[in-house]
Specification:
The complex is a heterodimer. Chain A contains twelve helices and 22 strands. By secondary structure, chain A is α+β, with helices and mostly antiparallel strands. Chain A has two domains: 5-341, Peroxisomal Thiolase, Chain A, domain 1 (3-Layer(aba) Sandwich), CATH 3.40.47.10; 404-482, Beta Barrel (OB fold (Dihydrolipoamide Acetyltransferase, E2P)), CATH 2.40.50.840. The longest helix of chain A has 24 residues, at 202-225. Chain B is an alpha/beta fold. Chain B has two domains: 9-124 and 215-231, Peroxisomal Thiolase, Chain A, domain 1, CATH 3.40.47.10; 138-212 and 238-391, Peroxisomal Thiolase, Chain A, domain 1 (3-Layer(aba) Sandwich), CATH 3.40.47. Chain B is 35% helix and 18% strand. Chain B contains 14 helices and eleven strands. In chain B, the strands form two sheets. Chain B has a nine-stranded mixed sheet, sandwiched between helices. In chain B, a hairpin with a 1-residue loop joins strand 5 (200-203) and strand 6. The longest helix of chain B has 16 residues, at 27-42. Classes of the chains: A alpha+beta, B alpha/beta. At the A-B interface, strand 18, strand 19 and strand 20 of A face helix 5 and strand 5 of B. Strand 18 (405-414) of chain A pairs antiparallel with strand 5 (200-203) of chain B, so a sheet runs across the interface.
């Protein structure tokens, strides 16, 4: 175990909204599939979901290990997504700023392939092996994949994010082996500038791509580790649809009924890059010491990772669970509202003002959520100021990190301000630990908002003024842990 | 602080346009109409004015930038000093305040203080939504005037147990008063039911809890008292003036209660001290207060010392502030019914109080009115101005 690498903590993020597939089918005339899919709110993209999953991952570290993560130990950070808000500009850089990753850390985006999260975990494992045992790496997978209205993809896709904290001590599960099969096999693709994902002929991609490539990656992994399929507790494998995975499992000698992890296709949909992370998090909550878990990603080949749960796997139960995220759902009953969220119809965004110098100058305040505290009178000031309004001291401020939880002091639901999903709710929130947040409430039924309600801050896109996404925090009703 | 303005500065003429959707009038038409009326009232020509202070939130609707020239252009008031004052909703009172300094210094004998706003050349929502595009790209985005005061209302309801009906009574009172003034934007009497049924602007405030978006201008001509006596005997003296500017970021301040505003409290304190007022409810005969929303009028009662904290609503319930009450408030309909062209509102209040003190208010006349107060509030209660006026004779 001394030089082993594995999972220290995990986090996930699912958008609050669910759209029943029959609602899509009724609107588009398509064949209704069973279940529902998750839908990112209008203020969410893969980066905001990724940030929220990563923050939950660090919060869960505190819950599981009774200790906060020291950001200076974060030596690597990877953001895997096929739908980064940027084609040029690093999304992981935004994540790094929120997580306060050291400037010397290895930070990168892994785009283009849905198996990017597994690739990232493999690279992180190699990097960690070269570091001391305090070193940690964050792997985030997130997607908000665009599907053509009326297409089968539109019903099957879902939006979400997952995150893993990898390290060399305090492991819940050890990474024991990796395998990879690289292949120039085109299953799905989207050219630069294309609005929607395209997929090849179903029988061709499934029979000549998915099944043989995944079989080979998982088979290689089993033989490397010297394991038989029956020694594996759970197979967590990406699947564009669960039937395909059932067939693959049977072919490899797994029992699809007991050994295959739920891909959440029915309740969330095919989330793309994060699918295996989200599914794995559900598995970790129920794993026992010694359990072998295979995680396999697919696209342009396949890649698989063998995990073995440690004696500390029970700590996973102290973390915020997948079930809590599944409970947080709000039904989206209208297809046109979904199209509006996707910017396919309706008023797309605010023509607001963007200032890159201002965003840069204030990034620690606005992205890092730093207030200042007067060293003389201890008053907390957010937004930051140099002159204390309580005791008039000049330049006696020290940084003060705001908490991300609090209680609504007062609120309103505003019908005047242009909001893609009116009314726009605004809250004044007294933050736990001190300081006050004033801003928008999102994902919350306006009629549920009450003075005293518990909220937490969620990272969101505030506007796209002058074609640049401006990210900030909004308040959402607090999600439970279980 | 000295009281250098006590009994020094007198208002000798006032004018005000009809407020409303004056689509037929330009910014210049509004400015000229208010000025001509004020000059006629002061029995003087524009030539006699030495300097002007122009209050306008956005004079650039009539010009190319923030500049005093639109007034010079409109009035033919050329090659004389025009100072532009822009301090959001307290602009009108701050314009008068600055004009007073010019006259009190002795440099000018007669000064024009005028507030002009052309709101309806843009959409009715455009000004309210300015922070959609303007200002800090992140902090406070989504905050509008209604959303701020609606947040105050929710907290006030939570603390003091009143509901929307009490706010509605403020609107009913002010609409009633507005219906008695031919220059008011809204002339329609309304009921509590009407307010409760009208569409939301920002919960718990409906459209009928909210002020209007109006065009309008109002003006006052001021001079030193020794000169005022030559014009008329019923001139009105400026007895106290306070302006208090705080921060728009009070919304982030953990100690900010949303139940009262230090800006109004401190501006009133200054004005009361200068005017020698200790018991405002007893010593003031009428008041024009900043009722941008119904809740705001109730909060103003408390901040101005008309009622104790948490008790402002009782003045409404007991009818203390109706035309027949002990302290009539917003006798011309206020921002609620008379209208709210931002830079003009403070001077519109001065116009109404002067009319009342000179017993020219007709059916709205408050009996034995000798002393009146005007109060403006701007931003998220970020600044406030208070003026106390008194009839001279």
């Amino acid at each position: 175990m001394e030089n082993s690498t594995g999972i220290v903590s995990f986090g996930l993020y699912l958008p609050a909204y669910r759209l029943a597939r029959k609602v899509i089918a009724e609107a588009t005339g398509g064949y209704p599939r069973r279940g529902e899919r998750s839908v990112a709110n209008y203020d969410e993209d893969s980066l905001t979901m990724g940030v929220n999953a990563a923050l939950e991952c660090l919060d869960n570290h505190g819950r599981a290990w009774d200790a906060a993560v020291d950001p200076s130990n974060l030596s690597a950070l990877f953001f895997a997504s096929t739908t980064s808000p940027f084609v040029e500009k690093q999304a992981a850089g935004v994540l790094g700023e929120v997580l306060e990753v050291a400037p010397s850390a290895r930070v990168a985006d892994l785009g283009a392939s849905l198996r990017g999260a597994i690739t990232a975990a493999g690279i992180a494992r190699t990097l960690l092996s070269q570091n001391d045992d305090r070193a940690l790496a964050v792997v985030v997978g997130a997607d908000r994949r665009p599907a053509e209205p009326g297409s089968a993809d539109e019903q099957s896709f879902g939006d979400g994010a997952g995150a893993l904290l990898l390290g060399k001590r305090n492991l819940m599960a050890e990474i024991r082996a990796l395998s990879a099969v690289n292949a120039n096999f085109t299953h799905s693709w989207r050219r630069t500038g294309d609005p929607f994902v395209q997929t090849g002929d179903q029988r061709f991609v499934n029979n000549l791509g998915y099944t043989p490539l995944m079989s080979r990656a998982i088979g290689d992994l089993l033989s490397t580790a010297g394991l038989a399929p029956e020694q594996v507790s759970k197979l967590v494998a990406y699947a564009p649809n669960p039937r395909l995975l059932g067939g693959l499992a049977r072919k490899l000698g797994f029992n699809p009924e007991t050994q295959v992890a739920d891909t959440l296709a029915g309740s969330i949909g095919d989330t793309g890059t994060p699918q295996v992370l989200i599914s794995l998090i559900g598995v970790l909550a129920e794993a026992r010491p010694g359990d072998n878990i295979i995680v396999a990603g697919y696209a342009d080949g396949a890649e698989a990772m063998l995990l073995t749960a440690t004696e500390d796997i029970g700590r996973a139960q102290k973390c915020r669970q997948l079930t809590a995220h599944l409970k947080r759902k709000r039904d989206l009953t209208s297809y046109s509202r979904y199209l509006n969220f996707r910017d396919i119809i309706g008023e797309s965004s605010y023509d607001a003002f963007t200032s890159l110098p201002l965003l840069w100058r204030e990034s620690r305040q606005n992205t890092g959520l730093y207030a200042v505290k007067c060293q003389k009178c201890r008053a907390i000031h957010f937004p930051q100021r140099r002159v204390c309004h309580s005791c008039s001291a000049i330049d006696r401020m020290e940084p003060f990190k705001l908490g991300r939880t609090g209680k609504v002091y007062t609120y309103t639901n505003d019908y005047l301000y242009l909001n893609p999903d009116p009314p726009g709710s605004l809250a004044t929130v007294d933050l736990d630990g001190g300081g006050r947040f004033f801003g928008q409430i999102t994902d919350t039924d306006p009629q549920d908002i009450k003075i005293g309600m518990d909220v937490e801050l969620s990272f969101r896109k505030l506007h796209d003024g002058q074609n640049f996404p401006n990210y900030f925090w909004k308040a959402v009703k607090t999600t439970g842990r279980a | 602080m000295s009281n250098m303005f006590n009994d020094q500065i007198a208002i000798i003429g006032t004018g005000c346009t009809k407020f409303g959707e004056n689509f037929h009038q330009s910014w210049a038409d509004l400015a000229l109409e208010a000025t001509v009326e004020a000059c006629r009232d002061a029995q003087m020509d524009l030539d006699g004015i030495d300097a002007a202070w122009l209050g306008s939130y956005r004079p650039w609707i009539a010009a190319e930038r923030n500049i005093g020239s639109p007034l010079a252009e409109a009035l033919g008031f050329l090659y004389k000093p025009v100072t532009l004052v822009s301090n959001i909703c307290a602009t009108g009172i701050d314009t008068l305040r600055n004009a007073c300094f010019g006259v009190a210094s002795g440099m000018y004998d007669y000064a024009l203080a005028i507030g002009v706003e052309k709101m309806r050349d843009a959409g009715s929502r455009s000004l309210m939504l300015a922070n959609r595009t303007d200002g800090h790209p992140l902090l406070g985005k989504g905050r509008t005037a209604p959303s701020f005061f609606a947040s105050c209302a929710h907290r006030y309801f939570h603390e003091f147990g009143i509901g929307r009906e009490m706010l509605a009574k403020v609107a009913v009172k002010n609409h009633h008063n507005g219906s008695l003034h031919p220059k008011a934007h809204l002339q329609r009497k309304i009921t509590v039911e009407d307010v409760l049924k009208s569409p939301w602007v920002a919960e718990p405030l409906s459209i009928l809890d909210s002020t209007t978006s109006s065009d309008g201008a109002a003006a006052a001509i001021i001079t030193r008292e020794e000169l005022a006596r030559k014009t008329r005997s019923d001139y009105v003296l400026i007895k106290g003036m306070g302006l208090s500017v705080g921060t728009e970021r009070n919304i982030f301040d953990p100690d900010f209660t949303f139940l009262g505003f230090k800006t109004t409290q401190t501006a009133a304190q200054t004005a009361y001290q200068q005017a020698g007022i200790k018991r405002p409810l007893d010593e003031i005969d009428l008041a024009e207060v900043h009722d941008c929303f119904t809740i705001t009028e109730i909060l103003n009662y408390e901040d101005l010392g008309f009622a104790a904290p948490g008790q402002g609503w009782k003045l409404i319930e007991e009818g203390v502030t109706t035309l027949e009450g002990k302290l009539p408030v917003n006798t011309d309909g206020g921002l609620k019914a008379f209208g709210h062209p931002l830079g003009a509102s403070g001077l519109r209040m001065v116009y109404e109080i002067t009319q009342q003190l000179q017993e020219k208010a007709g059916v709205r006349q408050v009996k034995n009115a000798r002393r009146g107060l005007a109060h403006c509030l701007g931003g998220p209660a970020a600044l406030a101005g208070v003026v106390v006026l008194e009839r001279a004779d």
